[in-house]
C-alpha cells in the first residue's frame, strides 16, 4: 500500500496549524486523495482528513490526465477539491509558494 497521500495530509495539517496557506497537487496515485466515499477499515480515512482540512483553508487539486488513467472522473471528487492540470494549477501553486515539498517514488 502507498501511504504517500497520508503523509501529504499530515504535513498539510501541521502547516495549516502553523498558519500557512497550503495547497496539495496530486498526481499519479495521489489523485485518489480526492475520491468521494472513501471507507477504509484498517487505516486512516484520508478523504475525511481532506474534508476536515478544506474547512481550515487547504486547497486540493489533482491532475486530470492521472485521474482519467485511474478511472476517477469529474463528479466523484470530494466537494471543495478539484480535478485540474499541471499547467494551470500546479504552476499557480509553485508561483505563489515560498516552499514546496514533493513526495514521490
List how many beta strands DSSP finds.
3
Distance between the termini: 13 Å
Report the portion of residues in β strands.
5-15%
Q: Which sequence of strands runs across the widest sheet?
A: 1-2-3
Q: Average pLDDT, to the nearest integer?
A: 92
The ordered H/E elements are HEHEHEH
| Poorly predicted parts | none
Percent in helix: 25-40%
Q: Helical stretch count?
A: 4
Describe this structure in words.
It is globular and about 35 Å long. The chain has one domain (4-96): Hypothetical Protein Ychn, Chain: A (3-Layer(aba) Sandwich), CATH 3.40.1260. Helix content is 38%, strand content 11%. It has helices spanning 4-17, 46-54, 64-69, 86-96; strands spanning 23-26, 59-63, 82-84. It starts with a helix and ends in a 9-residue tail after the last helix. The protein has 105 residues and is α/β, with parallel strands linked by helices. The protein has four helices and three strands. Strands 1-2-3 form a three-stranded parallel β-sheet. The relative contact order is 0.21. Helix 1 (4-17) runs parallel beside helix 2 (46-54).
